[in-house]
Each structure stands twice: as structure tokens, then as C-alpha cells.
Amino acid sequence: xxxxxxxxxxxxxxxxxxxxxxxxxxxxxxxxxxxxxxxxxxxxxxxxxxxxxxxxxxxxxxxxxxxxxxxxxxxxxxxxxxxxxxxxxxxxxxxxxxxxxxxxxxxxxxxxxxxxxxxxxxxxxxxxxxxxxxxxxxxxxxxxxxxxxxxxxxxxxxxxxxxxxxxxxxxxxxxxxxxxxxxxxxxxxxxxxxxxxxxxxxxxxxxxxxxxxxxxxxxxxxxxxxxxxxxxxxxxxxxxxxxxxxxxxxxxxxxxxxxxxxxxxxxxxxxxxxxxxxxxxxxxxxxxxxxxxxxxxxxxxxxxxxxxxxxxxxxxxxxxxxxxxxxxxxxxxxxx
Length: 336
Prior knowledge:
- This protein has helices at residues 3-20, 54-67, 69-72, 84-92, 103-111, 165-177, 192-200, 216-224, 235-243, 281-292, 295-299, 324-332; strands spanning 27-28, 42-46, 75-79, 98-102, 125-141, 156-158, 186-188, 206-211, 227-230, 248-252, 264-276.
- The protein is of the alpha/beta class.
- Helix 6 (165-177) links the parallel strand 6 and strand 7.
- The radius of gyration is 20 Å and the shape is globular.
- The N and C termini lie far apart (46 Å).
């Protein structure tokens, strides 16, 4: 299966997820288009590309919110966007009500660092809850003998292109382990779309990704050649995660990919739902209630949600303070 085919299938599945929610359950809108309700209350969730997980994640949240529309009068709609950075900038400009954001970008927005340094700290940013994890994923040729992150030393490794998420996270892992680039036999800068082909062609021993699971490229690679998911754990990794509030421990479930029957421990960032402090607490409360009161249904709406646990969604990966509406629901239900 080609990379284009994988992306096409992913995009198709995202559209199918939203289509299956029905017109009465979720709407998609465009920037600047407000959705009217019987009492004027609406929520627009900024998501990401239709080929990613953020778009159907927003659709799943809106489905559950809109099911209770007759009671609370809130209508929820999703907006396809450029992703985390665009969403956070749009929220700061009051162009979005809620948004999906990767936990590391949430952290940078709160603190006014990185690409948000010119704008300064986003003091009105509030977290609502976490969603699925996006795991640092190491995939190795089975013949390489690599079983744990420490085994990468002295091996050929695809570390990702400069400026990519996987390259940045691999650099942090190497720093935590006390490694330099020379500790690898060779370090390749494959594009994410090229890595699995290089692995199966024996041009490298291992490659790294930062992805939500299940993932089409990982599925293709594990089906095309003998590969193994590598555990990323240990004291050094634990300390690295502890020092960075936007990281969280993660598990890639066993049986998800061919030839990988056991759970694999790793870490990663988290997809989070964020909001402005200015949004009415009652609205935020109803959004949280819609998801958490119907959590089993929420988990069924996308494969990436299948292994979520309610208690882990309250704080994992969140740097911004919880919104008052979310705090109220979590306290009422013993989650805080």
C-alpha cells in the first residue's frame, strides 16, 4: 500500500466518522461563521486537518454535546484548521471558542515561549481535558536485536528531519540518556513518509515517529517487513517526563500491529482540549459533562480513543489551569 493510499484512507475514515454522526449531531463550519441556537449559545471547536485525528476528535465531542441540545441549548460545530499553533493563535484573537492543541504547544502558549515568544504568555488560556496520546514511537527491524531504547546506541537510526516533531523529541531522549549523535553508528534524516520504506529496505536499523495509535504508516511498516516496537522507558526517561509537564507516559497496546503482541511502554505528548477563560463556565461544564457522562460512547467514536481512562483525562499533559466549568464537573464527580 502506497503512502498516498494510506493518507487517502485516513482522510476517508475521518469523513466517514463525521458523516456517521448525522447532520443533527455535528456540524462543520468555516472561520468567522457563527452557528445560531435558540438562545444564542454556540461552541466552535478548532481541530486540524481532515486527514488527522483532531478533526474527528472534535466531531466526537460535538456529537455528544449536540445530543443534549434540547436541554442545555448549546450547539457545537467543528472547524478544520492548520492545527495546534493556528488554533491557539485564533483563540487568542477570539476567533475560536475551543480548540484541540498538542500539550507541548499548550505549554509554550501559556508560557509565551517558542513560536509564541513575540505574543507573550497566553494568560487567558485554560485547559478542559486531555484526549488521546501521541506517542514517541520507535520501530526497529526485528533482525537488529533492538528491544529497548538503550539498544539504539551504536545502531543506524532515522532521527527525523531537522525541525520535525520526531527530531525534536529524539534530541531530548538522547540528551536524557547522555548521548551525542556520534553514539549512533549513523543518523539519518529521512522524511516521515520515507522512514518505513528505508527500514524495510534495510537502510536503517530503527526509525522514530510521534503519532497517535493506531497509525496507518506503522501498520504498513509492520505488515511489509519484520519489525518490532521498541520500549522507551527507564529512570532517565522517567526523569525527563517528570521535568516537562507537557509529556506523559504512554502505552502502545499489544496486538495493535502485526508481530507486536505485547504492550510497549513509551512517552509522548497529549492531544488536549483548551478554551479561553472568557468562555461561560456553564458552557464548558456542559461540554465536559457530555463527554464524561457518555464516556463509553466517546471511546467508541475513534480507534485512538479505545484505551482512554476517565481519570487520566483530567490532568495529563495540561499546563494551563483548568477552566472553572471543568473544575466544577470534575469535583462533582470525584475526579478532582
